Amino acid sequence: MLRRIVGFVFTVILVLFLAGYGILRWEDHDRHPALQLPVGTLAIRDAKVYVSPDDPPLEHTSILIRNGRIAAVGPDINIPARTETLPCHRCIVTAGFWNSHVHFTERHWAGAAFKPASALESYLKTMLTSRGFTTVVDVGSNPYDTVSLRRRIETNELLGPYIYSALAAQYPPHGIPFYLRDTLPKPLQLLMPQPGNPAEAAADEEANIARGADVLKLFTGSYVEHNEVKPMPLANAEAAVQVAHAHGQLAFAHPSNLAGVLIARDSGVDVLAHAADDTEGVTPQILQSLIDHHMAMVPTLKMFRTTVTTNPAYLMPIYAEVQQFHSLGGELLFGTDVGYMTDYTTQDEFDALRQSGLNAMDILRMLTTAPAARFHVEADKGRVAPGQLADLVLLGSDPAGNVLNFSDVLLTLRSGRILYRKP
Ligand SMILES: [Zn+2]
Fold it and tell me: How far apart are CA 36 and CA 39, in angstroms?
């Protein structure tokens, strides 16, 4: 009898342990399941097609999509009978857009592993796919939610963009920014990596990658108070970047000011996730040195205007910095910081980029070919050409005439699946 009870208790403990372990490890399984492409054909007829920012647009052009990829593009291509044609009516077609700075931190993503697919899909639509985004870079969020969301999209449980994620960002020691410190629950803040030395920084990044991170995000300059930026120790940044690069991953940094920019540059960071908003000392020579280090920049201009201040004395130097970086030949990537910024519309970012001297093709490059090349997926993404994944945006009006038309999205297609169709 006693043996039976002991056996029963032992079994219960074992089951509970395995269940607990399973729940904890659940997020780790199938980090990026193989892409499952749909079977079948789709067509777009009589569109104006921007093949890429570097090719002349094609007028009265048709596109044939077969099994999730672009099969043919041209005025007289052969479209098999009974192929479903997407509504276009002389629409404008570009490659799917990238948003290289987003967050899945708002309350509605919490418990993404267990939420109904339809709810998550509608949040994704509102925030991203109705804006034309087919690939996004999450530069910091709660790993449990983002990994679950990413897995459910990749296994076709719900429709959404392809997600690269930094999962947990790294901060300077005692360096959580005031806007997170004042809003996030204290227990959560204890889990946010603030390594005290290079060995800890490297270990934190190894652990982050083991949990499924695709990129590294560092706060090389962290606004610990409204008017105080705490720099990350250079050696910490170097150690974390070295781990990311050893795993073939890109490093993003939030610089804030000149010191943060220089730590990013000198530690080998690949992408500034924002322009420096304290532009003091960020001279053309400094910007040139970033270009010499093959660094890219995500300006996030609307975020500064929306969440900090509309004061031109603050904004104009940031626009000038972006304009200077661009005119020196620096690589810009489009990103809005949605998720942190709760206004999801994209018009204001396009407008601010126009004010920084960018034209429609400059912006199309930020949205398509530049990020695809930066992430080494240019064979699959960034252009409207045979062999590429059918990641496409159908616009109702031409951005060549007005860059705000990049926000006039009629339909968003990812790998030949319709993610969004304007009602
Ligand atoms: Zn952000």
Answer: 9
